[in-house]
């Protein structure tokens, strides 16, 4: 079939998940992706096989929301327990000879450590980056190498940082491909910018992409009574009709499983194919408040929101956020992009102490109500400002207050009024480097590991109970600007994750130790 396709005897070839592997045909006119690939690189590599002779060609990308759930499932499946690097290192140390050389059966080792084959090789990579092992060539079912150093606290920290960076890279690819799919900017320009090319796209006869010209979208033919109903059935029908018979012809794919992106979105086969059009702005329904929230707001006095039951399980009741910002508002944007209007969560209000804060513009662009509360508007009396801000927040019946780059201290009366309902994101691994310029403090101190902390706010400066933390490794002679970028990327992932956990009712205080925050094991997806 491939020979006939390459020699132009067969005009169409169907059913390959790696187009380009051994296919070097210059006059391919159309490349179709039946599902959204895992990255823009993967899409471009295969779509770029069309029109290599210089004549017009087109690439179609067919996708559904279920593709998102599939991506999230595989990213989650490949995540590694932080305990695994040490388990693997100890197993290798026990098997290594006097010269540090080791050779182990990969399957047996994976079973001993408690991970899959792909995860095992990823773990070896993290240990190598930490300087613990040096992998050597070996058969696929074997692992060989030599020990380079001990698995100590430094190695453990470097492994955690390497694992975190690997996870961030996967989520970054996820965000990039879905921004391409769901975005409303020129497809060609988006791909060029992704690869660092700032030239304007060149088109043939004015044809560009479906964003620039929706007339390029093909028309989906009407189904008739004799049509095959689903993609599964179509694949099975083609396989059964093959002559000679090839492969397994009794089913089209493995058994379906309910891999969820959220509680309402199951991964399932499509009833039809959708073309990728720019989404209309999403409207958000009004809040469906519980009866007890219609009266005077309750001072929770240290209780963690959601501890009495998840608002996501209460008949679709929204979990409402108030976000406080002072500047650019990139953490606010991350919350808007990942959570607003999703999973029962909505950003109900955004407030700032500075009327020129860029975060206010981001909120207005998302249709979120804004307010400005400056101490100067209250005669320099911060307590009066805090009271006005607190009244405004309570009027909007929010469940959680998020400090996302809010650069002023809130007074004792405010923190007591909303005790247990305010969280902050801080760019260090608290209790190290609290207060202002935490990243600069860490770089100047020459630490090898810094990170991000999401914590509950109390009356002190960055002293509240810690909810989530994630490490960021610093290179020698770390640059403050580069470090800020790395830390902010982690902030943009960790803060939405913390909010999602609270909204899901998965966060509790330890009755025996109020400084300790307990997090239930829940499905935490959609970064």
Highlighted features:
527 residues; alpha/beta; 7-stranded mixed beta sheet; 3-stranded antiparallel beta sheet; 15 helices; 16% strand; globular; disordered C terminus
Question: What's the helix and strand layout?
Answer:
Blueprint: H1 2-6, E1 30-33, H2 40-47, E2 58-61, H3 65-77, H4 84-95, E3 101-105, H5 106-113, H6 117-129, E4 133-136, E5 142-147, H7 153-182, H8 187-194, H9 231-241, E6 260-262, E7 265-266, E8 319-325, H10 330-338, E9 345-352, H11 358-365, E10 369-372, H12 382-395, E11 400-403, H13 412-417, E12 422-426, H14 438-445, E13 449-456, E14 466-473, H15 480-503, E15 507-510, E16 513-519
Describe the protein.
By secondary structure, this protein is α/β, with parallel strands linked by helices. The chain is 34% helix and 16% strand. The protein is built from 15 helices and 16 strands. It has helices at 2-6, 40-47, 65-77, 84-95, 106-113, 117-129, 153-182, 187-194, 231-241, 330-338, 358-365, 382-395, 412-417, 438-445, 480-503, and strands at residues 30-33, 58-61, 101-105, 133-136, 142-147, 260-262, 265-266, 319-325, 345-352, 369-372, 400-403, 422-426, 449-456, 466-473, 507-510, 513-519. Strands 10-9-8-11-12-13-14 form a seven-stranded mixed β-sheet, with helices on both faces. Helix 13 (412-417) links the parallel strand 11 (400-403) and strand 12. Helix 3 packs antiparallel against helix 7 (153-182). The longest helix is centred in the N-terminal third of the chain and has 30 residues, at 153-182. The radius of gyration is 27 Å and the shape is globular. The relative contact order is 0.08.
């Amino acid at each position: 079939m491939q020979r006939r396709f390459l020699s132009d005897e067969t005009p169409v070839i169907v059913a390959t998940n790696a187009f380009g592997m051994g296919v070097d045909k210059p006059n391919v006119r159309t490349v179709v992706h039946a599902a959204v690939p895992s990255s823009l690189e993967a899409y471009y590599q295969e779509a770029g096989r069309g029109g290599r002779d210089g004549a017009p060609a087109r690439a179609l990308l067919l996708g559904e929301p279920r593709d998102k759930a599939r991506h999230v499932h595989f990213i989650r499946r490949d995540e590694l327990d932080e305990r695994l690097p040490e388990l693997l290192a100890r197993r290798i140390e026990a098997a290594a000879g006097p010269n540090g050389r080791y050779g182990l059966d990969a399957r047996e080792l994976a079973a001993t450590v408690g991970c899959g084959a792909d995860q095992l090789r990823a773990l070896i990579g993290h240990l190598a980056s930490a300087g613990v092992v040096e992998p050597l060539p070996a058969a696929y079912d074997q692992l060989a190498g030599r020990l380079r150093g001990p698995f100590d606290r430094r190695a453990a920290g470097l492994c955690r940082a390497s694992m975190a960076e690997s996870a961030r890279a996967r989520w970054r690819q996820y965000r990039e491909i879905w921004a391409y799919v769901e975005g409303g900017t020129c497809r060609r320009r988006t791909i060029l910018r992704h690869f660092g090319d700032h030239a304007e796209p060149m088109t043939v006869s004015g044809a560009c992409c479906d964003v620039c010209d929706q007339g390029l979208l093909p028309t989906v033919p009407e189904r008739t009574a004799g049509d095959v109903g689903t993609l599964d059935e179509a694949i099975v029908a083609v396989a059964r009709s093959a002559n000679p018979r090839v492969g397994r012809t009794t089913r089209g794919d493995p058994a379906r499983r309910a891999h969820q992106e959220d509680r309402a979105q199951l991964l399932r086969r499509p009833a039809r194919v959708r073309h990728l059009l720019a989404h209309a702005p999403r409207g958000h329904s009004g809040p469906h408040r519980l009866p007890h929230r219609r009266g005077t707001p309750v001072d929770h006095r240290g209780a963690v929101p959601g501890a009495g039951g998840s608002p996501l399980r209460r008949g679709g009741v929204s979990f409402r956020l108030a976000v406080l910002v002072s500047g650019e508002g990139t953490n606010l944007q991350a919350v808007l992009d990942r959570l607003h209007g999703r999973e029962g969560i909505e950003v109900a209000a955004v407030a700032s102490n500075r009327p020129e804060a860029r975060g206010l513009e981001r909120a207005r662009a998302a249709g979120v109500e804004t307010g400005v509360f400056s101490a100067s508007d209250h005669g320099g009396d911060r307590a009066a400002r805090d009271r006005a801000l607190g009244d405004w927040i309570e009027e909007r019946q929010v469940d959680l207050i998020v400090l996302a780059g809010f650069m002023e201290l809130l007074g004792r009366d405010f923190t007591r009024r909303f005790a247990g309902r305010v969280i902050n994101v801080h760019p260090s691994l608290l209790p190290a480097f609290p207060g202002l310029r935490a990243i600069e403090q860490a770089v100047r101190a020459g630490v090898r590991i810094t990170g991000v902390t999401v914590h509950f706010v109390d009356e002190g400066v960055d002293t509240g109970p810690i909810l989530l933390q994630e490490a960021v490794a610093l290179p020698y002679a770390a640059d403050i600007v580069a470090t800020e970028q790395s830390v902010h990327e982690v902030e943009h992932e960790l803060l939405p994750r913390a909010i999602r956990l609270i909204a899901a009712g998965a966060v509790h205080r330890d009755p025996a130790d109020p400084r300790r925050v307990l997090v239930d094991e829940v499905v935490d997806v959609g970064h």
